[in-house]
Predict the 3D structure of the following.
Amino acid sequence: MIPQLALLPGYLTAHLQLSLIALALGIGFSVPLGVALTRLPRFERPALAVASVIQTIPSLALLAIMVPALAALGLRSIGFLPAIIGLTLYSILPVLRNTVIGLQGVDRTLIEAADGVGMTGAQRLWRVELPLALPVIVAGIRTATVWTVGMATLATPIGATSLGNYIFSGLQTRNYDAVLLGCVASAGLALLLDGLVRLLETGLRERRRARSWLALGIFALLYLYTGATLLPGLTGARAERPIVIGAKTFTEQYILADILAGQISRATGAPTRIVSSLGSTVAFDALGSGQIDAYVEYSGTIWATLMKRDDVLDRDTVLREVGDWLQTQHGIALVAALGFENSYALAMRGSEARRLDISDLSQLAPTAPRLTIGGDYEFFARPEWRAIQSAYGLAFKDQRILDTSLMYQAAAQGEVDVISAFSTDGRIAGFDLTVLADDRHAIPPYDAIILAGPALARDHPAALAALRNLAGSIDAPRMRAMNAEVDHDHVTPEAVAAQFLGAAGK
Amino acid sequence: MIELQSITKRYDGANVVADLSLSVAEGELLVLLGGSGSGKTTTLKMINRLIEPSSGIIRVDGEDVAGIARPKLRRRIGYVFQKVGLFPHLTIAENIAVTPSLLGWDKARIRRRVEELLNLVELDPTSGARFPGQLSGGQEQRVGVARALAAEPKVMLLDEPFGALDPLTRDRLQQSFLAIRKRLGLTAIFVTHDMVEALLLGDRIGVMHQGRLAQLGSPRDLLQRPADDYVRRLTETASRQADLVEKLKHGGGA
């Protein structure tokens, strides 16, 4: 818990930045638009319809589609910008709708009275309509506040740090203290901001100056803090930009990112930064566009998913062809193969495998129609799954999609019989699962490889050389052991990485 | 002071007000009397341009109102609404001060004026700090009158201001209003559907029926020489009610 708490100021600050900026933009856009719509009733329905449609997009998906959308526009597609845009879009509907409803709800008699006493349109708006609509508008703002703070946790997979980092990495590394901390902190932040908005509103409505000023003062401080913490990142970024290492959303990736970062800083002293919990294709795209400098990928993923190859060749050939393809198609360097494979592999309960006498996929095939298979979000859509199915004629009774953080446990507890495991996952041994051999070689090799973007070779040749030194330094048992240390023994990925680098350095 | 020249207001092809002409002299109180749908409120609202006429010219103080910016025009004309329309989020004092503050009066002048007006409409000076929701219907309409008078207009328009009040309160407000009007020498148009109120308050009465002016004259003219059947029926009803009250008072049966 203590090392997790040390991360809190950073995560909380980042979460506050995302929430406050998105809310300010959302409110700043929606209230004036709402006012305009009550003046131009013709556009009211279309505008509210568009806002509603945005709202129906699941929040995670809305954030995720910002990545390719911004990339297509040539803008920074991971990190702060896509998160801010997604969150802002999401905050529009409640504020817009309540602004329109609030203004429409103002008694017609009072509108006429305001005209009758000689107010101009603007005076009527500021002196009569907005004050009277305020409670309804504020209700919308409060809804948007709670939504935005909650949804900001989902900014983590698109590369923006938030309290979601606790939740995503905690779920993957089975560190439920971290998950709880992330949830409690974000709920607390939501309640705090909601309470502040409420304080401001009652202060204004009941004319309690002290109360309004208190709320405004706290908001001003929060925004000042946000601005002060954000500015150096925006302006000073060019001067000393750290080397950015990416990590996907599972334990091994967290450890390897720490190893890469540690290796670079030990060898060169250059500052590094880790952007963790990136979605699978987000990481590759981010590397291609120079938003991260290096991360660990798996040769088979590139082979099957990006190169669309369905033939299965040996490890060395695949490595060579993948390296050539990356260099020519994307200008990305395959720096080194770490020395182990982490391939998709089907696994089942050890006791069950022994009872049914199954040790490879050929033996699984006849029994499969009586079994249920569980896979992660992408497995059943991946070419490897189709390859396995056709090579072995596998047909299961049922298939279920599970989060990787729950999948191994589900297999151990018999909720599913077979899962799409990763061969180096520490939980295979931890839960006494048996990996079934791919005896017909349907799955391509999955060598862990360090990829580096063009900027790293150009700007930091020493860092690239340091990464190259990691070639062949980790074998599969070593990786499995390190994964188990995090997943089972709850050592932090940083500590495991430091231990590895310390041992390797001697 | 107020002059309407062939005013017509059409909604969806139907004339709500048809070719109406009248003028109100300085210091005169004209009552527009009529049933619902007679066009009396529409006529009133066209004077301060809450409603724009389809055709015709309206002059206030010799000036064509169509050439005056609406807010500017309305700040010169006091308007009392049937539903009062006090702003619920503002105090009584702030409600009364609304037009002076739009005109940019300084704070001291506004404060003096609000005190003066609370006094004039016979409200407790401490009630300025209260909110409209805390007042009775009669008190609210006193504030409504005070608000209309705040910027010292020469012209007042009143749209059935006492229509929703109980008879005793109504009588008290009518008396107050008569006194205020005399003191300030206001030119006013007062809309009502109540014949007795019209007879009591009006220097002249314009009877409106189906968008037209059925008769325009002094209360005596109306009672003695009704111009048509409609006016006759109106005055006869009032007379009959008065007779009945007289008879009952003197012990006679109906």
